[in-house]
Amino acid sequence: MTRSRECYVLGAATTRFGPEGPPVPERAFNAAVAAMEEAGIDFPDVDQVFIGTGLGIPTMGVKMIKDLGLTGVPVVRVEQASATGAAAFHEAVHAVWGGRSETVLCLGFDDLTSIGSANSFRSDMFPLTEAVINPAAFFAFWAVRRMEERGTTPETLAKIAAKNWNNGRLNPYAERQADSPVSVEKVLSSRMVAYPHTARMCCPSTMGAAAVVVGSPEAQSKHATNGTKIRVAAGTCVSEQYETGHMFAGAITGPPEMAKRSAYTCYEQAGIGPEDLDFVGVHDAYAIEELLFMEEIGVCEPGEGDRLIADGDTEIGGRIPFSTDGGFIARGHPPGATGLAQIWEQVQQLRGTAGARQVEGARVGLAHIMGAGSVSVAHILTNA
Amino acid sequence: MSITLTRAAADPQLFELVEPDVPNGAIQLLGSYSPANGETYWPRRRRCPVTRQPVEDVVLEARGELWSWTYVHLPWMARTPGPSPDQGYGTCVVELPEGPRILGLLIGASGDWKIGDGVEGVSWDLMEADGVMQCVPAFRLVGSDQ
């Protein structure tokens, strides 16, 4: 799209994910208020709201906004499965880029702990044939295939997961807070979920909320006068393209290639390449995803991801850190909030406020997420 | 006294039972063929997703090669469809010779399979609903007696 102007992140907030804590509506309220406070605005300054919730009941989002104020602001709900929060952010950014909105609130929340049984899902739109293939199984198909084609080992997947668990220990908002460093052996010895993925290689089904405020250059100058300017350099949402062997039924997401297309569209928009990234958040609901997506987004050649992991390149302090906040595996994954929590982490890293998990000299970050159905959403943020 | 339930495809828009009276009986898959580009799709499409031209209904034999597999140790949405809730169950992606890849249950024990193995589709008795046994597609190694 043609941009009429830049878009900046004015404020971002997340709540700690996980079943412990207040109900989701209270968390959402708290996240929205915190993001607006950080942005230096009050709710009447918001001229557009995007609500991201994958599992929230109809009308839930707009009703929750009433707690913030009855200002008559346009409220639109966005749903893209796992990518729901990221898609809400995408819409907000494009609303600013296009000149339609000055200051936009994105509020994402979800509670995956309440997913029902097969029968509660069953309909003409959700075949039972698909219900027996759970997400852990679907991404395990990718892992088994990768092991056959590239010689990837369960130890490599465990190393990814251990890294993310240990990054989560540095993030007070991560759901999983291991009381001691998590080793590869500890990941491998956890309960098998779907071969080769053990429980510690999988994200938890969880609940949580997060919020982000974006705005025009004028809004940035007027309100967000403290701290580093965080510019949204690129953002896109792509859906599937046909390829041989395409799965129209039962596939949680389309082929990993979607991640490549979304990332390279962002590189083109931002005028940079993957070599310019300082840190990355990718969809790591299952460990194999981080491995495949790091190759798809171009930080290494196809088949070289195993070596990057073995060499520690993707750890904090390494060449290109991934999932610095713990990723889906440790931070947790309530779909409406996940994409916004990714943006929150980008903001912390780019401001230099990430504490013990800070990537030194972070200037450019990429946030990527897949959504079942399926879509791939990516954004590049920069402090430059 | 045992009651014999009628078997039916849980999702009749996706596949049909060739042998509804037989446990693990043969199935066939309901697909589409695009004369415009020669591609075959499963399940049926309203039009060719590549050329956007009309497609023809085709029935596909449920035979192919294992593209990938896994063994699942927990249920999700559906009850554990394997022989016992404690035993988990196999699932797979099968590549048909016509091109489409199909997901289904995989009969056997973990370690029985390897990528490239020839498999055939059969019905799997998943759950009863309204007096009818709802079946989903499953695959087994060609020549298996399971």
Task: Summarize the topology.
The complex is a heterodimer of chains A (384) and B (146).
Chain A: E1 8-14, H1 24-39, E2 48-52, H2 60-65, E3 75-78, H3 84-97, E4 103-111, H4 118-121, H5 128-131, H6 135-150, H7 154-168, H8 184-188, E5 192-194, E6 197-198, E7 207-215, H9 217-222, E8 230-239, H10 257-270, E9 279-281, H11 287-296, H12 305-310, H13 327-331, H14 335-351, E10 364-371, E11 375-382
Parallel strand pairs in A: 2-3, 2-4, 9-10
Antiparallel strand pairs in A: 1-7, 1-8, 4-7, 5-6, 8-11, 10-11
Chain B: E1 6-9, E2 15-17, E3 27-33, E4 40-41, E5 56-61, E6 63-72, E7 89-95, E8 101-106, E9 118-129, E10 132-141
Parallel strand pairs in B: 1-10, 8-10
Antiparallel strand pairs in B: 2-3, 3-4, 3-5, 6-7, 6-9, 7-8, 9-10
Describe the structure.
The complex is a heterodimer of chains A (384) and B (146). Chain A is α/β, with parallel strands linked by helices and 384 residues long. Chain A has a domain at 8-114 and 205-222: Thiolase/Chalcone synthase (Peroxisomal Thiolase, Chain A, domain 1), CATH 3.40.47. In chain A, 36% of the residues lie in helices and 18% in strands. Chain A is built from 14 helices and eleven strands. Chain A has helices spanning 24-39, 60-65, 84-97, 118-121, 128-131, 135-150, 154-168, 184-188, 217-222, 257-270, 287-296, 305-310, 327-331, 335-351, and strands spanning 8-14, 48-52, 75-78, 103-111, 192-194, 197-198, 207-215, 230-239, 279-281, 364-371, 375-382. In chain A, helix 3 crosses helix 14 and helix 7 (154-168) packs across helix 11. The longest helix of chain A is centred in the C-terminal third of the chain and has 17 residues, at 335-351. The radius of gyration of chain A is 19 Å and the shape is globular. The two termini of chain A are 22 Å apart. Residues 117-121 of chain A have low confidence and may be disordered. Chain B has 146 residues and is an all-beta fold. Chain B has one domain (6-141). Chain B has strands spanning 6-9, 15-17, 27-33, 40-41, 56-61, 63-72, 89-95, 101-106, 118-129, 132-141. In chain B, strands 6-7-8-10-9 form a five-stranded mixed beta barrel. In chain B, strands 2, 3, 4 and 5 form a four-stranded antiparallel sheet that branches. In chain B, a hairpin with a 5-residue loop joins strand 7 (89-95) and strand 8 (101-106). The radius of gyration of chain B is 16 Å and the shape is globular. Chains A and B meet through helix 4, helix 5, helix 6 and strand 5 of A and strand 6, strand 7, strand 8, strand 9 and strand 10 of B.
